Amino acid sequence: TLFTGDVIVETEEDANIILENCRVLGTLSVRSENTAIELKNSGVNTFENQALDGVSVDADDDSEIKVANINNPTTISCSKIGEIYLTGTGLSGETVVISGDVDYIDVATGVILKVNGDVEKLNISKKVNLVIQQGKISELVVSKNAKDSTINLSTAKVTVKNAVNNAAVSYIGAGVIENANNVVSGVEYENKPENVTGKDATSDTDKD
Questions:
Q1: Which of 50, 70, 69 is closest to 10 using CA atoms?
Q2: Residue 11's closest CA among 36, 32, 40, 41?
């Protein structure tokens, strides 16, 4: 089935929606709490969660989500995810769980993020208090607008191959950063990266 426009899920009761052999060219928008979406051999151009809580997406290996706009706590299991945008006050201090590999994640709110998979690029676009509980990140980029952010790589299950810091931020937690490029000075690390280049490259970041 081909949906050329938007598909809106809005119910008064808990819902379990199955899309099988479907293509959504517009936006699949969930507006009801406690809604479970199941994708079977289906493709969604844009997924959007506007519900406050209890929304999950479970996709089989033949399904794909190109873009996900997440404004509230969400759980997504999908082996093919293009871009994820985490934004809005509804996510502040809340948890998003992703199972699957992701090309790009943009963080613009203080979310708790857990990724059971690989992330090609994670961009921090605003000042946030970000907690990452799990994930293998190839490139983490801190934008200029994210100055004074706190990035908590909270467990050893978090690894960052390359971090590019365009603003002064603080990294805390047990997660491992292999390589860090400090474009600016003033970047602080609780767990010092294996290699640091750029500003403060030779300083002892473990000192008080």
A1: 50
A2: 32
What's the pTM value of the predicted model, to 2 decimals?
A: 0.93
pLDDT in tens, 130-151: 999 999 999 999 999 999 999 9
> What value does the CA radius of gyration of the chain take, rounded to a whole number of Å?
18
Structure tokens at 17: 């929606």
In 3-state terms the chain splits into helix, strand, coil percentages (rounded to 5) of 5, 60, 35
CA distance 192 to 66: 35
Greatest CA separation for the chain: 61
Residues 77, 96 contacting (CB under 8 angstroms): no
How many other β-carbons are positioned within 10 Å of the β-carbon of residue 95?
A: 14
